[in-house]
Write a sequence for this structure.
């Protein structure tokens, strides 16, 4: 899913340039440029089915590229919070930021790293003297998922507190329910994890931004990678919402463009708890590879697939479900499965900084994107000399590109106050917004599951949109 005090960051490793070039050749990344709980359960325990399994895909015939691992690379020089000059403009009101990040629902596992990333950035901004002479504030609210109206209630509450920007939601489907409410109020909506392609052209009055790349990039990366592994046929189980169908469409297009065939695509809806029919259909199609596009539903779907005799090494997951299942599935259930998460790999320094905020973190997905969202909002407010959402939005593209590179709030705000144009390069990557509020380039991390059902960094692909 992700600038620390120790100057470490997410990255693609010290040998990134060589690795990226090799990967680009092996995966056919030219397409980027051209188109730009508890103990484990068996399938029968999960849904009450019989215990008989079918050898749908007994032994994987796939041969994926060898893992290159990944440990974060060093970030550029950071600023000294104690040396930041005073702001030349003082705001009578502090910059107020809200968040709608998931603490309940099918994406609740993404809440802790995202909230920690936000809180770390707020702490560092205020350690450097805040924005326009005032400490900034953060108010967190739950986003829930699309089965509830929690997000609408949370946004209503935040708007009543006169926030200038709202970080979230994580789910594209949830953001669709509140984007007009937020931007219609003249407030910036800044998602660290929305990937649905349709936000690129949304009528958002120039107030919607995201640090996560469109799923066009993730879908191309995953589709190309599956074909590189030697698959000719692909089966898909897809969440029927904006996130799921958009990502599914891009993966299918990529697979078919490379000469492969999608032999089955089984849909399910948010809130569904029974998945036997979808799994049965996929098993019957006997694809070389299976793509699972879901959120928390993977905890129920994966055991059913394994119970059908499907080799975990033929399973490919996405950012919505590439998570730590060591407490949810029997050991070894996911060993060899792979998944993608936008963003460079986690650096140990950034993890250590996040641990000072939340020592219980087990996932870092979208923590960097959340951290960068707060820094960018704060820098844009400083550049605008205003805490008004509409004025902040006007500066977000500018502070992300075409200036002196800087890597954290203290370093960047020092340059701003010395009269320089800045180019913020964050923990999640170079960012570099286009006119639609989309990052124009990003890394997609590919992770491989170990015997404890934990995703480990395998390789990283960098692409442009």
């Amino acid at each position: 899913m992700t600038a620390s005090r120790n100057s470490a960051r997410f990255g693609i490793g010290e040998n990134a340039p060589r690795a990226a070039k090799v990967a680009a050749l092996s995966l056919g990344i030219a397409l980027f440029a051209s188109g730009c709980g508890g103990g484990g359960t068996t399938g029968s325990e999960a849904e009450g089915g019989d215990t008989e399994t079918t050898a749908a895909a007994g032994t994987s015939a796939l041969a994926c590229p060898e893992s290159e691992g990944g440990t974060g690379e060093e970030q550029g020089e950071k600023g000294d919070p104690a040396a930041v000059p005073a702001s030349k403009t003082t705001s009578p009101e502090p910059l107020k930021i809200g968040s709608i990040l998931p603490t309940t629902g099918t994406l609740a596992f993404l809440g802790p790293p995202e909230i920690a990333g936000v809180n770390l950035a707020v702490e560092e901004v205020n350690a450097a003297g805040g924005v326009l002479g005032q400490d900034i504030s953060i108010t967190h609210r739950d986003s829930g998922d699309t089965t509830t109206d929690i997000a609408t209630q949370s946004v209503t509450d935040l708007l009543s507190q006169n926030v200038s920007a709202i970080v979230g939601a994580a789910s594209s489907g949830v953001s669709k329910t509140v984007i007009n409410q937020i931007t219609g109020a003249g407030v910036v909506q800044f998602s660290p994890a929305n990937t649905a392609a349709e936000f690129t052209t949304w009528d958002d009055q120039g107030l919607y931004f995201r640090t996560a790349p469109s799923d066009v990039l993730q879908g191309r990366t995953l589709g190309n990678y599956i074909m590189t592994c030697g698959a000719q046929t692909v089966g898909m189980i897809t969440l029927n919402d904006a996130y799921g169908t958009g990502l599914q469409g891009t993966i299918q297009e990529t697979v078919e463009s490379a000469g492969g065939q999608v032999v089955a695509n089984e849909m399910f809806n948010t809130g569904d708890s029974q998945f036997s029919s979808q799994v049965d259909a996929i098993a019957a199609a006997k694809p070389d590879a299976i793509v699972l596009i879901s959120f928390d539903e993977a905890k129920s779907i994966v055991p059913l697939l394994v119970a059908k005799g499907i080799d975990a090494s033929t399973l490919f997951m996405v950012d919505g479900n590439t998570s730590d299942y060591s407490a949810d599935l029997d050991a070894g259930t996911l060993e060899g499965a792979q998944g993608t998460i936008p963003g460079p790999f986690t650096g140990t320094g950034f993890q250590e900084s996040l641990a000072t905020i939340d020592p219980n973190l087990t996932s870092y997905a979208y923590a960097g994107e959340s951290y960068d969202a707060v820094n960018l909002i704060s820098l844009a407010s400083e550049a605008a000399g205003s805490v008004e959402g509409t004025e902040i939005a006007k500066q977000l593209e500018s502070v992300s590109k075409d200036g002196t590179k800087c890597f954290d709030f203290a370093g960047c705000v020092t340059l701003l106050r010395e009269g320089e144009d800045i180019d913020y390069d964050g923990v999640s990557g170079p960012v570099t917004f286009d006119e639609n509020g989309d990052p124009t380039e990003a890394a997609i991390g590919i992770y491989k599951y170990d015997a404890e059902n934990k995703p480990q960094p395998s390789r990283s692909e960098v692409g442009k949109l």
Q: What stands out?
A: The first strand starts at residue 96 and ends at 101.
